[in-house]
């Protein structure tokens, strides 16, 4: 862990301590750079459009191949491809809506629309996994002749397309829940295509049709964990839990190391949307620091501390002189 010391150089001549508190930028009422166009999903919009085009094309190939070959596994994989296309389309729509400006009723604008889109995507993934699993179980014991050649051709085309889509989305999947959701879906599609290819090869050389149902179940089992992972991350954001890569206790310790800071309380950390964490706290400083060292000097050091060690661009800090302390009001230490 970094040394809990936050004492960057600051220039003399700060203005006298104001009578009101302000945010970590030192200016009340501005947007803190939360415009929707800067969200991680918005940054990768062109990649999502390209992946959507690829996914829809492969869906058409696989759905035709599934009906020709009578393969449940290929039909399941094509259904998953359609779900992926829907998820990417939702993510794109959400990224556009998220660029709408904030107003007095929606102070964060529509950034959370991206999170709601990821929620819908996760739910649809879960439903698809259950439907595929049930259909595969129901098909056991039936005599369905699967044509391996069209099954293999469609599956190979799907695998190649999914590999290309993975390479396109790889750079953005760590920054955005929606891009990550699309990346995980394409990864699942790739694995599903591999399962269909294996099943097709088995059917072609042995005539063992049960391989088709087994591949379908494997695809369902691949989808389910990804749906759970995406939904878990979405719920974490909606419950306004602290970002998983932010150590709130460490942030408090770093702030306490700033000269003049006596106490840090009412600390809150949450995620507005993917890649946009937020942080707020009440900071008690000594009366001497308030009058001699300067309110803005302490505020600037706290801001630099949170930026340097925790990459918190959006932090709202309320500074209070030690003599202003009111016992009993600190319910969120």
Specify the biggest β-sheet.
3 strands, mixed
How many helical elements? 9
Percent of residues in β-strands: 5-15%
Write the CATH homologous superfamily of the largest domain.
Cation efflux protein transmembrane domain
The number of distinct β-strands equals 3
Question: What's the helix and strand layout?
Answer:
Layout: H1 40-43, H2 45-69, H3 72-97, H4 113-139, H5 148-169, H6 177-206, H7 210-238, H8 248-256, E1 261-273, E2 276-285, H9 287-310, E3 315-321
Parallel strand pairs: 2-3
Antiparallel strand pairs: 1-2
Helix pairs in contact: 2-3, 2-5, 3-4, 3-6, 3-7, 4-6, 4-7, 5-6, 6-7
What does this structure look like?
By secondary structure, the chain is mainly alpha-helical. The protein has two domains: 1-30 and 240-333, Alpha-Beta Plaits, CATH 3.30.70; 36-238, Alpha-lytic protease prodomain-like. 59% of the residues lie in helices and 9% in strands. The chain has nine helices and three strands. The chain has helices at residues 40-43, 45-69, 72-97, 113-139, 148-169, 177-206, 210-238, 248-256, 287-310; strands spanning 261-273, 276-285, 315-321. The chain has a three-stranded mixed beta sheet. Strand 1 (261-273) and strand 2 (276-285) form a beta hairpin. Helix 3 packs antiparallel against helix 4 (113-139) and helix 3 packs antiparallel against helix 6 (177-206). The longest helix has 30 residues, at 177-206. The chain is elongated, with a radius of gyration of 26 Å.
